[in-house]
Amino acid sequence: MLVNLSIIFVLASLAILVAQRFKYCSIPLLILLGIFLGPNAPEFSRANLGLIKNSESIELLSELGVLFLLFYLGLEFSISQVVQNSKTIIKGGSIFTGMNFFRGLVLGWVFFHSWPYALVVAGITTVSSSAMVTKLLVEAKRTANPETELILGMMVYEDIFMAFFLSFLSGYLLAQNSSWLASATGGLVVLVFLALVFFLGRRLGAFFDRLLSMRSAEAFVVIAFTFLLLSANLAEAARISEAVGALLLGLILAETSHAKKLIQMFTPFRDLFGAIFFLSFGMQIDYQQFFSVFDITVWAVVFTIGGNLLAGWLGAWACGYKGAAAANIACSLIARGEFAIIVAGLAASAGMAGMLQPFAALYVLILALVSPLFMKRSKTLYNFFVRLRELVNKPRGIST
Amino acid sequence: MGNIKEAELPGLGKKYQAELESGERMVVVIYDEGHRELFYFPPEENEPACSVTLTDQEARQIGSIIGGAFYQPKMLEKLETAIAELRIEWLKIAPGAPIAGKSIGELGLRKNLNVTVIAVIEEERKGKKRTTINPGPGFVFSPGQTVVVAGKAGSIEQFQEMVTGKGE
Known about the structure:
The complex is a heterodimer.
Chain A: H1 2-21, H2 27-37, H3 56-76, H4 79-84, H5 86-112, H6 115-126, H7 130-139, H8 146-174, H9 180-212, H10 217-237, H11 242-253, H12 259-283, H13 289-318, H14 323-332, H15 338-349, H16 356-376, H17 378-399
Helix pairs in contact in A: 2-12, 2-16, 3-11, 3-12, 5-6, 5-8, 5-13, 6-8, 6-15, 8-9, 8-14, 8-15, 9-11, 10-11, 13-14, 13-16, 14-17, 15-16
Chain B: E1 4-9, E2 13-19, E3 25-31, E4 36-41, E5 50-54, H1 56-66, E6 80-83, E7 86-92, H2 104-107, H3 109-113, E8 116-123, E9 129-133, E10 146-152, H4 153-164
Antiparallel strand pairs in B: 1-2, 2-3, 3-4, 4-5, 6-7, 7-10, 8-9, 8-10
């Protein structure tokens, strides 16, 4: 068992090192490794590339990976950051995320003609990857630009949106075998539950504050991890997804005075087990399925980029950014990553396996390749747009 | 010095933006991982012209160099030190200044103006300088001397007029 685990971690380390070398996010590489070296690896007459075997231990680690990813999302969830310059971020974020979500729903409906599928596709395609976008921003030396504040603010908004969306989706998917109305109520119940936790968070936070106030780091980390497992179990018992349980616990603990310490202590866990989650997601995918989802993925990519450019530009314009800065905003938020995979994983655990996972993987991979180009060439794109506008405006100028 | 704006960069760190007197902008980004990045924006520009990345250690060292911990600029001809309310100034007596030819006691500097003469530097022949520390009330001022004087800002300004201004 340890041999298999060692192989997995050696491969994951290699992927992360390569990603670091090219100053790039490791998520797409980890998925690729899972696809091409996992149990569904291509077989040749002489060699079998399938180095990694699916095992219970890997499944467990990847499950923990999701818990940590969502626990962290909840912990980092600070409303104060949004409230600080709330008006612009809420305005820009609502326009941007709202348009993207609507575009995702339409795409999903056109592809699959079913509401659960439409919701999952919307979940996969709506929210950009904070991990990738921040890496790209640092790489493009744009962290100090004035418009970057709005870009990062929009991503905080997207995170908040995702917290609510994931809760709704998990409730919806678990009740989906019954009628349309029942599943929608299932989603709403979880959503109301989340809102309740959100507003009672401070009370509950005070309770947890006392429970966790201890000097010893050992006690702190073990007890916090126990809470994480318990909340995941509790959520499962309440017929919500475990991931949402972790998210809720994160939200509650974010209100305690230990939030910073928790983030510091659990970031390594998130990185460690998150890597296995992305790798194991790739392992579930047979690369031959790529051919059957290729056309819808390409359409999704095209519409994501187009929709994103439009939504980003409108959002920027509503917040008072014009010209090259607005183009930068529109071109920055194209990468998709962790959330797309989490949503696809959630769909798989709700029994919606098949097309959606290879679609999500291929979609993330293509956008991972394309998004840096947009980030770097936003100026070229803007100049092209300006010239286009001049061409359109000129004849009108002559006639008047 | 213009204002420094502070902004949160969620997921990255913090940003400090300084508007310099020259109209240029300098931005310091402190990343959560610990390193710093400095950006230079030319006037009226929204894209940085250049940037440099420092590790935490380097940033601390360079920060203290800029702060003047290792070396402070040489005193210029007119030294102005302000510590809380106290000011110490080096003033050169102009020819025909109101105090020229009068003694410290005659002027009643301590009583009337609330300033104290700490020292007087006189230039002798061959460029040699003679310093009189804590001159007594009988000391007579003459043009060309440099007076080192301590007092509150308002009093120093009044005294400055008598030293440099053209008298009656």
